[in-house]
Amino acid sequence: MLQRILIVLLFLMCPVLWAANPNPSNPITVFIAKKIITMDPAWPIATAVAVQNGKILSVGSLEDLKPWLSKFPYKFDKTFENKILMPGFIEPHGHPLIGGTAMSRPLLTYLPVPNPYGPPFPGVKDKAAAMDMLKKYVSQQKDSSKPLIVWGYDIIAMGSPLDASELDKISTTIPLIVWDASEHIVFSNTAAINALHITSSDSNISGVRLDKNGRLNGQFYGVSAAVFILKKALIASTTPEQAYKNVKFLMDLSHRNGITTTTELTFGIIDFPLEHELYNKYYNNPNTPMRLVAITDAVSANNYKKNDAINFVKDLQNQNTDKLIFNGVKFFSDDAFVSLNMVIENPGYVDGHKGQYITQPDQLAAAISPWWDAGFRIHVHSNGNGGNASTINALYQLMQRKPRFDHRFSIEHYGISTPAMAKALKQLGGVVSANPTYLYARAELNEPAIGVDRADTATAFNTLVSAGVPTSIHSDTPVAPPEPLKEVWMVVNRFGISGKVHGPAERISVEQALRMITIDAAYTIGEDDKIGSITPGKFADFTVLDQDPYVTPITAIKDIPVWGTVVGGNVYSANDYRG
Q1: Integer Cα distance of 469 and 425 in angstroms
Q2: Average pLDDT for the chain
């Protein structure tokens, strides 16, 4: 007990110790704002914040800052005197490489997709339009030897999947890869199968499908199969320079939407050395207005380093910088929400089809155990009520075998759930990072497949908050664009695409939603001692808004203009990152 008390005291003192001993050789910068929303309940509102050496020194009014300003050199920055400052927005579940690669591809998405450098892609509304767009992309392909990767085909919105026979009608010569909007499914034509040297013997990989004659049918279902073909296609079609541009594409879009810290939830799933080199080059660049918290894909680490995987990931954490932080590992329970390949039970799908587990329920706790025992933060991709039940049961088994203090075991996505699950998570000390687009973009598409009640109560935010479960919201880019204010708008209104309100009892307050993109997001990824609130000792990371989200009508929150960000005390206008 004494040891736990000492740990808590040291944790609480950490920001104070961090801020101690300001360097008088570096002047204090005092940012003046119309209003500063700190997300610190003990000191919620301010009009000035003092910053030194990239960290927050003090916050309050100018009068409150006098103890510092009377002793050390300082300068005023009035750039934001008519603006609203908030803690920098946090993306607690992102994919900079995969997301940037997908969103900068030729697109086949059902919904519009924003572009940081120009007008959005308008979306395609039916399968015929998608096929016409695909023909256009093929006609524009200049190098027929490289795979053409097109992202965003939406199985549910378009009404049916694709296969090699259908894509062969588009092209028999250009290797064609169609990447589904869920991220977890890939379709290819025969030319791609041949060019990437995939054979029927590869059907031993879960999700690599064959036709009735035992030949590859061009369908790759689930994470294992999708990663298998995508790795081959991306290596064949993407240079290191292009990969850097893909990451920058997504980060420029993230910056324009006020994000100051993003995450990589499957670090290493493509290639550890290449990803590490890429992220080190981008995020440790002093001109990059973004931090990255990288969470390692545990299965990839096990495959890469075998019995030394845990030491390998610990060594990554020993290499942390202020801008590139390794913290935690990721596992998968069931499959994707967007493709309706998640596991739904009691009852199941209306049409009777079965979803897919990525890690079988009787194997999940055992897979996590070595990492749990080593003290890592655990994140589990989990979507259907079957997947969520399996994930919560794994947490229960882990806590029964080896209880841990402040573990923050995180369920990622949490699509279809029950109130009992929220209560269980509270009792077990779990947290949730949920995707609000599962409600906004999918409810009306999913009602015929899983029932109106389940579709309309997806991502049950009020149930989680009422149960006391720490909860954050995310985009899971490329599943949705990185737009935190739009996510806030989604969860306080619960509109669907048509404007219909889905599950109004699950709406939450603006205050609760803003916490989900700031301090609660920081808590989820284990970095709340550094980011998430405007508190002395933390990084001086701010999002700059033109309007106050507390007084803006809730139906207009998504339209609040983002002026830019401050990262480590450095000011970055949104207009500075247009390509």
Answers
A1: 7
A2: 94
Q: Could you tell me if 260 and 289 are in contact, meaning their C-beta atoms sit under 8 angstroms apart?
A: yes
The one-letter amino acid code at 116 reads P
CB atoms within 10 A of CB 551: 9
> Is cis: bond before 347, omega within 30 of 0?
yes
- Strand 542-545 and strand 562-567: the pairing is antiparallel
DSSP character string of 139-156: HH-S-TTS-EEEEEE-HH
Residue pointed to by tokens 């940081």: 116
What type of residue is 297? D
CB 84 within 8 Å of CB 35: yes
How many CB atoms are located within 10 Å of the residue 553 CB?
7
Q: Which two tokens stand for residue 385?
A: 């009520």
Asked if 166 contacts 178 with a C-beta cutoff of 8 angstroms, the reply is no
Report the alpha-carbon distance of residue 363 to residue 274 in Å, rounded: 30
Name every residue whose Cβ is closer than 8 Å to that of residue 126 and which is 6 or more positions away in sequence: 158, 159
pLDDT by residue (tens digit) across 450-495? 999 999 999 999 999 999 999 999 999 999 999 999 999 999 999 9
> What secondary structure does DSSP assign to 466-512, as a single string?
HHT--EEE--TTTTS---HHHHHHHHHH-B-TTS-B--GGG---HHH
Which strands, in side-by-side order, build the sheet including 216-221?
A: 148-153, 176-180, 185-188, 216-221, 208-210
Q: Which two tokens stand for residue 393?
A: 């049961």
142 has a pLDDT exceeding 90:
no
**Alpha helices by DSSP H, 267-308:** 272-283, 298-305
Is the separation of the CB atoms in 278 and 244 below 8 Å?
Answer: yes
Per-residue pLDDT, 121:
97
Which region, left, alpha or beta, applies to residue 123 given φ > 0 means left and ψ of -120 to 50 means alpha?
A: left
Sheet holding 324-332, edge to edge: 89-90, 259-267, 291-297, 324-332, 378-382, 410-413, 431-434, 471-473
End-to-end CA distance of the chain: 54
pLDDT in tens, 413-433: 999 999 999 999 999 999 999
- With a CB cutoff of 8 Å and minimum separation 6, the contacts of 61 are 46, 47, 48
d(CA 373, CA 73): 48
Crossing angle for the helix pair 240-256 and 272-283, to the nearest 10 degrees:
50
| In the predicted structure, residue 21 carries a pLDDT above the cut 80 | no
pLDDT band at 7, cuts 50/70/90?
Answer: very low
Structure tokens at 442: 């999918």
Burial 323-343 (b: 16+ CB within 10 A, else e): bbbbbbbbbbbbbbbbbbbbb
Cα 3 to the center of its chain, rounded Å:
34
Over pLDDT 70: what percentage of the chain? 95
Amino acid at 505: A
Planar angle of CA 354, 92, 124, nearest 5 degrees: 55
Length of the chain: 579
In sequence order, what DSSP letters do the residues of 67-128 get, joined into one string?
A: HHHTTS-EEEE-TTTTSEEEEPEE-SS--HHHHHHHHTS-B--SS-EEETTEEEE----SHH
Which of the 8 DSSP states describes residue 316?
Answer: H
